[in-house]
C-alpha cells in the first residue's frame, strides 16, 4: 500500500528537479543546462542568461528580472 501511495504522489508532482531539495551540480547541469543546449523548453524562467563580457562579477547578484 505504501508503494502505491508513493507512486501516486510522484505522478501528481510536476515540479522540475531542484525544487523540493538541494540539487547537486550534476542534477542541475543534467536537467537545465542540457535542455538549454538542446533548445528544449524549460517550463520555468528561473535561470537568467547573462552576457559575462558586459557585466562585472561583483554586479552579478544584482542582475534579476
From TrEMBL:
<feature type="domain" description="NAC">
    <location>
        <begin position="15"/>
        <end position="65"/>
    </location>
</feature>
<dbReference type="GO" id="GO:0006355">
    <property type="term" value="P:regulation of DNA-templated transcription"/>
</dbReference>
<protein>
    <recommendedName>
        <fullName>NAC domain-containing protein</fullName>
    </recommendedName>
</protein>
<keyword id="KW-0539">Nucleus</keyword>
<keyword id="KW-0804">Transcription</keyword>
<dbReference type="Pfam" id="PF02365">
    <property type="entry name" value="NAM"/>
</dbReference>
<keyword id="KW-0805">Transcription regulation</keyword>
<dbReference type="InterPro" id="IPR036093">
    <property type="entry name" value="NAC_dom_sf"/>
</dbReference>
<keyword id="KW-0238">DNA-binding</keyword>
<dbReference type="GO" id="GO:0003677">
    <property type="term" value="F:DNA binding"/>
</dbReference>
<dbReference type="InterPro" id="IPR003441">
    <property type="entry name" value="NAC-dom"/>
</dbReference>
Amino acid at each position: 500500500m505504501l508503494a502505491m501511495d508513493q507512486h501516486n504522489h510522484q505522478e501528481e508532482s510536476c515540479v522540475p528537479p531542484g525544487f523540493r531539495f538541494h540539487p547537486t551540480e550534476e542534477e542541475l547541469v543534467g536537467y537545465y543546462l542540457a535542455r538549454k543546449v538542446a533548445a528544449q523548453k524549460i517550463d520555468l524562467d528561473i535561470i537568467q542568461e547573462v552576457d559575462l563580457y558586459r557585466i562585472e562579477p561583483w554586479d552579478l547578484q544584482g542582475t534579476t528580472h
